[in-house]
Amino acid sequence: MKIARFSHGGSIDYGIVDEDALVVLAGDPLFAGFDTTGERVPLGKVGSLLAPVIPRSKVVAVGKNYREHAAEMGGDAPEEPLLFLKPNTAVIGLGDPIVIPPQSERVDFEGELAVVIGKIARNVSEADAAGHIFGYTVANDVTARDLQEKDGQWTRAKGFDTFCPLGPVIETELAPDAVLRTRLNGELKQEAPISDMVHDIPSIIAYASSVFTLLPGDVILTGTPSGIGRMTAGDTVEVEIDGVGSLVNPVRAAK
Ligand code: MG
Fold first, then answer.
1. In the predicted model, what is the mean pLDDT of residues 58-80?
2. Is the separation of the CB atoms in 22 and 39 below 8 Å?
3. Which CATH number fits domain 2-50: 3.40.1000, 3.30.160, 2.60.40, 2.30.30?
4. What span, in angstroms and rounded, lies between the C-alpha atoms of 52 and 31?
5. Which of 47, 66, 121, 170 suits a disulfide with 225, CB 3.0-4.6 Å?
6. Domain residue spans in the chain?
7. Rounded Cα distance, 94 and 249, in Å
8. φ/ψ bin of 70: left (φ > 0), alpha (ψ from -120 to 50), beta (otherwise)
9. Residues 117-127: what's their mean pLDDT?
């Protein structure tokens, strides 16, 4: 099942994708379940798809979680998940521009699978992790690479406004062998099965929830495969995951 968040007649609603229409939900399905209003909105009449979730408290991200990406960054994959946070103010949706900040001369794409938490998770075991997942979406962990190196820690480099595109929808099912692809101006840059992750989703949830409580609507970015690269103003970047969707964003300079 695919769930969209969209602008609709001056309000923001949620809907289940049903062929060429959205079945409108009565409330946010993370908190209000899947009761419908009975209304169907043709996809052609949807104002715009919005980021499918705005995390209430945090975006948790895992660094260097694919071996070949760790190698291209000049090291091995960490033995334990390497966690950092992105602010929820970095989140944008499908089609929203990624803005290159004036402080950086090297802003990179990082295509990633995102996990949306559905139930409060604190000290969850790997065996119980799946029960705390609401669904999956596509993310771009946009990174000011020069500032990441300069600062020595990652808050600024990962935290600019527009540096966390999410979307286009939340898919509640995920094939374990789904392939992630990133294209820059249509050219394939990253391609790897999500099964190449060093730390899998249950182990990330178990590890992260041993540090801080995960709340419904929190999002976990699970790391990027090799092939990261620079984006500049005028580019278009697409991250696609089989069965989940395609997240396309233009890139522009700050005004
Ligand atoms: Mg990343």
1. 92
2. no
3. 2.30.30
4. 14
5. 66
6. 2-50, 59-253
7. 6
8. alpha
9. 98
State the distance from the centre of ligand 1 to the C-alpha of 29, rounded, in angstroms.
Answer: 27
pTM over 0.85: yes
CATH code of domain 59-253: 3.90.850.10
Dist. CA 72 → ligand 1 center (Å): 13
- What is each CA distance from 103 to 84, 99, 152, 230, in whole angstroms? 21, 11, 16, 15
CA 13 to ligand 1 center in whole angstroms: 29
Q: How far is CA 216 from CA 58, 140, 150, in A?
A: 10, 21, 34
Q: Ligand 1 centre and the CA of 244: distance in Å?
A: 18
- Distance from the alpha carbon of residue 247 to the mean position of ligand 1, in angstroms: 16
Query: How many Å lie between the centroid of ligand 1 and the Cα of residue 6?
Result: 26
CA–CA gap between residue 240 and residue 247 (Å, rounded):
6
Q: Which of 167, 146, 27 is nearest to 96 (CA)?
A: 167
* Coil vs helix vs strand at 185: coil
> How much distance in Å is there from the Cα of 132 to the middle of ligand 1?
22
DSSP designation for 121 = B
Per-residue pLDDT, averaged over 28-52, amounts to: 93
Average confidence (pLDDT) over 143-158: 96
Neighbours of 250 (CB within 10 A): 15
Report pLDDT for 110: 98
pLDDT given at position 76 = 87
Ligand 1 centroid, distance to 112 Cα (angstroms): 7
CA distance 211 to 225: 25
Q: How far apart are CA 169 and CA 52, in angstroms?
A: 5
Bridge partners (DSSP) listed for residue 249:
237
